[in-house]
């Protein structure tokens, strides 16, 4: 079996973020807008003294030019972890492709795709490693 090696501390950081996500989901439950979950998760992460940016612009770099074409990462944590927050009936391959694109453009290795519109958050999580 092949194991993917991540930079030191990245797995631990993702565990902390997931703990905050579980707390938000436990408090709010499913059925709210994506923006509600994103704001609450941002608040919880920032409150725990973890560096987090919200709606961070992500340029597309083509050859030697930077194109600002509207990509925005929901939560960028410690400049090493991307979190995309969703509140949809079900996660699809398009959602995974979006996160994968953000990982490639940012050169981050780990991303979390979190769908809060589920009864149990565990069933709404996708962890993507580049």
Tell me the major beta sheet.
5 strands, mixed
Spatial separation of the terminal alpha carbons: 17 Å
Beta-strand proportion = 25-35%
The spatial strand order of the largest sheet comes to 1-4-5-6-7
Element pattern in H and E:
HHEEEEEHEE
Helix content: 25-40%
Write down the overall geometry.
globular
Radius of gyration from CA coordinates: 15 Å
Q: Please, could you describe this protein's structure?
A:
With 130 residues, this protein is of the alpha+beta class. It has one domain (10-129). The chain has 3 helices and 7 strands. The chain has helices spanning 10-28, 34-47, 93-106, and strands at residues 52-57, 60-62, 65-67, 72-77, 81-86, 110-115, 125-129. The strands form 2 sheets. Strands 1-4-5-6-7 form a 5-stranded mixed β-sheet, sandwiched between helices. It has a two-stranded antiparallel sheet with strand order 2-3. A hairpin with a 2-residue loop joins strand 2 (60-62) and strand 3. Helix 1 crosses helix 2 (34-47). The chain is globular.
Keywords:
130 residues; alpha+beta; two-stranded antiparallel sheet
Short description:
With about 130 residues, the protein is an alpha+beta fold. It has one domain.
């Amino acid at each position: 079996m092949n194991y993917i090696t991540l930079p030191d501390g990245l797995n631990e950081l993702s565990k902390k973020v997931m703990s905050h996500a579980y707390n938000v989901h436990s408090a709010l439950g499913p059925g709210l807008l994506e923006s509600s979950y994103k704001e609450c998760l941002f608040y919880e992460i920032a409150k725990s003294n973890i560096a987090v940016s919200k709606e961070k612009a992500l340029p597309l770099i083509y050859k030697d030019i930077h194109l600002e074409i509207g990509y925005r990462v929901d939560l960028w944590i410690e400049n090493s972890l991307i979190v995309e927050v969703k509140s949809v009936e079900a996660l699809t391959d398009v959602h995974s492709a979006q996160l994968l694109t953000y990982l490639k453009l940012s050169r981050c290795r780990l991303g979390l795709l979190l769908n809060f519109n589920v009864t149990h958050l565990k069933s709404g999580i996708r962890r993507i490693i580049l």
